[in-house]
Amino acid sequence: MKVDSTKKLRTAWGIEIWGVLLTVAAFAVLPLYPVRQMLAAELLFAVLFVSMVAFGAILYLLGAVGERGADVTKAKIEIVAQFARRCFGDLEGITRKLLHQHNAVHMTK
């Protein structure tokens, strides 16, 4: 008689027997002090890991926003600089005219 190794032992509800036995064994071992200590350490490690990942994600987002903000600011500063150059050029022309008129009035006296 040939035994089919692909068949698994199952309960009446279709759950594998080994899964049930491992689950019962895990719950039986949980009250032991070293197991509780190991689970507490693993939980602390997971919390620290998640917090570090969140902190890194926040820093990355701040850096990305800062880079985009710098690009936008640079473009706007160039617009303001062109406007300021034009205004100072106009102001220089007005000042020359006023000084020329002021000097002409004082030279005639």
Outline the structure in words:
This protein is an all-alpha fold and 109 residues long. The protein has one domain. It has two helices and no strands. The longest helix has 76 residues, at 33-108. It is rod-shaped and about 120 Å long. The mean pLDDT is 80.
Break the fold down into its secondary structure elements and pairings.
Blueprint: H1 17-29, H2 33-108
- Would you report the number of β strands? 0
What is the N-to-C order of secondary-structure elements (H for helix, E for strand)? HH
Number of helical segments with 4 or more residues = 2
Structural class: mainly alpha
Number of domains: 1
What is the general shape?
rod-shaped
Low-confidence stretches: none
The Rg value, from CA coordinates, equals: 40 Å
Q: Estimate the mean pLDDT confidence.
A: 80
Largest sheet: none
Kindly report how far apart the N and C termini lie: 135 Å
Helicity range? over 70%
Beta content comes to under 5%
Task: Give me a quick take on this structure.
The chain has one domain (17-108). It is built from 2 helices and no strands. The protein has helices spanning 17-29, 33-108.
